[in-house]
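Hi R.,

Here's the chain you asked about this morning:
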Amino acid sequence: MSSAPINLTARAETWPIAGTFTISRGAKTEATVVVAELSDGTHRGRGECVPYARYGETVDSVVAAIQAMRPRIAAGLDRAGLQRAMKPGAARNALDCAFWDLEAKRTGRPAHELAGMAAPQPLVTAYTISLASPMEMAAAALEAAGHALLKVKLGGAGDPERIAAVRRAAPHAELIVDANEAWTQRNLTDNLAACAAAGVTLIEQPLPDGQDGVLSAFRHPLPICADESAHARDSLAALCDKYEAVNIKLDKAGGLTEALATAEEAARLGLTMMAGCMVATSLAMAPAMLVAQRARVVDLDGALLLARDRLYPLRYEGSRVHPPSRALWG
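And here is the predicted structure, written out as tokens:
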């Protein structure tokens, strides 16, 4: 392996979304990502992240956090040291994934082999239906009804009508729901009942983080998955009495290294795993495919929601997403 000093660069990129992506916190027509690149002069490793405004991250703050690591990386900081040098979050995710990619390129060994895993297999991924009126969501669900798994974004008032409309439009698809913290204790019971009636199999983060203690006080009619309440592995123990599942995202965990450790901890605690993503390019989805191999629910459709993608993108075939080529990552 080369011992040449590693140079770090970081940049922000904007990618247009096909139409509009809407959740309870707002709508957007483009995805802004940050890419970290590590180069030893011969080999190049890349990682992509999405600054998470929900946790106070901005594009500028994430780029600055990555660039601040340049002297330490040039001085020899490696992937293991990175876990101690940076806190979990988008910036560490981009750098961590770039380290994995660089090591794969330098050694000629694929990332799954470096992680001690079997070769990843194609997986069924969810396809997202954005939050809108019941009629608009039904039209979107009808268009996407060929997908085996639909993820339905909900947002509060009118959600029983929304989920019923989606179910009528896509009678054969498995449905999961993501409320993005938009429900309240007042409407929780009715919304859960409407989802159960529609045959929903999983609900993500119905209540805001910090206001989800009520979830431990009653029997759930269907499994509930922590998303905004879940971060790296040390956040999981506090979730066990409130949630049956956890959504592991690389941007929250701070990279593939911690996401794999978080998956191990989730399994130890008996939490069902979901592998999730932000709206981003195939470069961000690629390392998450390794985490997804252990997940009961896979939601890696972020690149599918874009109007265009990178060179050598992930291959989406029907409801399935295929592992990345090494030309893309790992």
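One quick note: Residues 123-321 form a domain with the TIM Barrel fold (CATH 3.20.20.120).

Cheers,
M.
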